[in-house]
Design brief:
By secondary structure, this protein is α/β, with parallel strands linked by helices. The protein has 15 helices and 23 strands. The strands form 5 sheets. Strands 5, 6, 18, 19, 20, 21, 22 and 23 form an 8-stranded mixed sheet that branches. α13 packs parallel to α14. It is globular. It starts with a helix and ends in a 5-residue tail after the last helix.
Length: 634
């Protein structure tokens, strides 16, 4: 049975949630009868609206301290009496609430919770748990920037040579490779024609590096010819859009400054600085030069091709904090109208900080990835992520209109570029990259594979990492772990770029490999009930897949969201698929498909089993961020 048909069956057999339930505090859930001597007061109901994470922050603060808050309250409510820097997202949830942002003194938060229009209050930061695996194999991600910078310098100087070896692949042995046969049996599905073609999967996690050789070309795209975003990749970024909304409505400069209201770099680049006319110098070889100071650096003279039809070149700073650490300043970005004057269609990034855009890969619609092959082996080594929109002055940033009411006046032609990056220095690390590669990695690279791995030769699906959905289109969700509003990813997955369900840009599956351990053994919490209403009333064809969490063993352990219409995924074993545990010699020695000891069990407080299905969770191979390795083949 397919995921979609499974979801439709679940819709038929599960009783409908009443909308008003979502405005009840979590304490209104079915509970055991109060014991002798138990005293409850009206303030208990108010307190239950305050998330546990926020309660801990309040307990450690003075009454006069101020905290940035996200408040879900009934649509039309005015909370300006309690919140400074007040901002309301106009798009309502199906339970009748909207997101209210602002800043309040600790002493005011209890009064705010007592308001009948208020349903839930949390801090203006990610309310869940960052991905943290129990002890296991040593990670390959190198977080020592000194080592990485030394390698980058050696590559730029030509001191590093390619290490690619490509003996002929053995197709028969490759077909028996562990990731597509005995573990999740994807190859059997492929042989029947079920390859994921036409399916969009949103990886609601820490981001995706689409410049990685195994993920190039896997982005889902807007296929509606009537859409102003036709042909562009589909992507979403809740945290960056929040910073943009503060800039748009309240006059802040978070995007321009390169640091968002949530304390992380937005993934939108302000490219409104221009150079033209006398600001340009024509060089003897026909290229141009101009000065620009990227964020974190001083003035540099940049060289670039003379390809602008209007003669006006836009400059800005790249959004990736890891790249900034490697280069010791933000990489410069150049935006050019190469085909029609005033229509900015091409982006260049000075990835190696040599102050020249000559020779850098052009990123444009249809070829959005940004990368550089530093050792000449034909594989990307250094990534600048990918782009999914360049402002044109005629259309708003995708989805910002229906979600935030942001208009086309948000940026003029060439003034703003939306990036997707894998910034593993932020919360969540490289978790999104690993999840994305489990879905759709193309099996290109094979360097560093264990001896027992059948040799790959660089052709698709001969390499180490092969995703289960070989033809799936991936949708990145910025960095979910720096976004305060857990509901926006679900709203976007349900409604897409155009704000309507059942259209060309619909997303079929949203993958959520995270959970809120503060609400174990639950399905009645605020987030779970809200997600249920989105799945039931906004887009019933959207399949929601959630991790049950890593807090077991123990009866009743399930993390939120535990929506009753979702598919709850526990972790199964796969030892020793990564070559880190034992000295095995063949794939026959893998130990797999058992429930992992730390995988949460269930049941939930609503009586559900808690775990719908198990999937590879300890330990699977995955694609690493290029900026953590600086060697695409390996």
């Amino acid at each position: 049975m397919s995921l979609k048909s499974r979801k439709l069956l679940m819709l038929l057999v599960i009783l409908t949630l009443a909308l008003p339930l979502n405005l009840l505090p979590a304490s209104a859930a079915p509970a055991a009868e109060a014991g002798v001597g138990t005293v409850t007061t009206a303030s208990d109901a108010y307190s239950s609206k305050i998330y546990s994470q926020l309660k801990a922050t309040m307990a450690a603060a003075a009454l006069t301290d101020e905290i940035n808050l996200l408040v879900y309250a009934r649509q039309g409510a005015d909370l300006s009496r309690y919140l400074d820097n007040y901002l309301v997202r106009p798009q309502a949830l199906p339970n009748g609430t909207t997101a209210h942002y602002g800043r309040a003194k600790v002493a005011q938060i209890g009064k705010l919770a007592a308001q009948p229009d208020v349903a839930f209050i949390q801090e203006m930061k990610f309310p869940g748990d960052l991905p943290k695996l129990p002890e296991g194999p040593a990670p390959r991600v190198n977080t020592d920037f000194g080592v990485l910078k030394a390698r980058l310098a050696a590559l730029k100087a030509g001191a590093q040579v390619a290490t690619v070896t490509r003996p002929a692949a053995d197709p028969a042995r490759i077909a028996d490779w562990f990731d597509v046969l005995d573990v999740h049996k994807s190859k059997a599905a492929w042989d029947l024609g079920y390859t994921g073609d036409g399916v969009k999967v949103m990886v609601n996690d820490s981001g995706i590096d689409f410049a990685h050789p195994d993920l190039q070309g896997t982005m889902a795209r807007d296929t509606d010819p009537d859409s102003p975003y036709y042909g562009w990749p589909i992507a979403f970024d809740s945290a960056s859009m929040l910073s943009l909304a503060y800039d748009y409505y309240l006059g802040y400069t978070f995007i321009k400054d390169g640091m968002g209201i949530v304390g992380a770099a937005p993934d939108y680049a302000d490219t409104s600085a221009t150079r033209s006319g006398d600001e340009l110098t024509t060089n003897p070889d026909g290229t141009l030069s101009a000065t620009f100071a990227p964020l974190g650096g001083g003035d540099h003279t940049y060289t670039f091709p003379a390809t602008s039809k209007s003669g006006v070149y836009h400059f800005g700073s790249h959004v990736d904090s890891v790249l900034e650490a490697l280069l010791e300043e933000r990489a410069a970005v150049l935006v050019v109208d190469e085909n029609e004057a005033g229509v900015y269609d091409t982006v260049y990034v000075d990835l190696d900080a040599d102050y020249s855009f000559v020779g850098e890969k052009a990123a444009r619609k249809g070829s959005e990835e940004i990368y550089k092959d530093l050792d000449g082996d034909g594989y990307a080594d250094l990534s600048g992520g990918s782009i999914y929109w360049i402002s044109d002055g005629a259309n708003p940033l995708p989805a910002s209109d229906w979600l935030w009411g942001i208009g086309a006046d948000v940026a003029g032609p060439g003034d703003l570029v939306a990036f997707t990056v894998m910034d593993w220095s932020e919360g969540g690390g490289d978790h999104g990259q690993l999840c994305a590669s489990a879905v759709a990695a193309q099996g290109i690279i094979d360097g560093g594979s264990p001896d027992w791995k059948p040799v790959g030769d660089g052709t698709p699906f001969t390499g180490m990492i092969q995703g289960a959905g070989k033809n799936v289109g991936l949708v990145a969700s910025g960095n979910y772990y720096v976004a305060p509003d857990a509901t926006e990813g679900y709203l976007f997955a349900a409604l897409g770029y155009d704000g309507y369900a059942d259209t060309e840009d619909d997303i079929q599956i949203i993958s959520n490999s995270w959970g809120y351990s503060g609400t174990d053994n639950d399905s009645w919490d605020w987030l779970s009930r809200t997600v249920d209403t989105i799945l039931r009333y906004v887009n019933p064809t959207l399949s929601d897949m959630n991790s049950t969490g890593n807090g077991a063993p123990g009866y009743g352990t399930v993390t939120s969201p535990g929506d009753t219409l979702g598919i709850s995924v526990g972790a199964s074993t796969l030892y020793d698929s990564t070559g880190e545990w034992d000295s095995i010699t063949t794939v026959d020695q893998f130990v797999y498909n058992d429930l992992m000891s730390w995988s949460n069990r269930g049941p939930t407080a609503m009586g559900d089993n808690g775990v719908t299905v198990l999937a590879e969770g300890a330990w699977g191979a995955g694609a690493m961020p290029l900026t953590a390795i600086l060697d695409g083949w390996n």
